[in-house]
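Run log, item B.
One chain of 101 residues. Sequence copied directly from the ordering sheet:
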Amino acid sequence: MPWLAYCTLVHVLRLGDVAIAANEFELFTDYGVQIKARSPAVQIFVIQLTGSAGYLPSQRDMRGGGYSAVVQSSRVSPAGGQVLVDQAVEAIRELWKDSAR
């Protein structure tokens, strides 16, 4: 089954040294860990399930199987999950860009 094209929003907010990144998926742990590790924020909250996009398993989770990591339970592939991570991190870094000066 080919993956369908899907568009989603990722919202980011900065409150002092804290970042909040919200998305409509139920992210698997790998994605949240990547966002937190790559973020310049002192603390980051990854808010999920702000919509009805469903599960977003990582490649490792797809290999492991389970009902939430099969194609039928997901609208977006692990490659799309990596795009979400990259875009969230880029947006967070933009919020810190002026702080580096």
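Observations after the first pass:
- The radius of gyration is 14 Å.
- The chain has a mean pLDDT of 86.
Flagged for discussion on Thursday.
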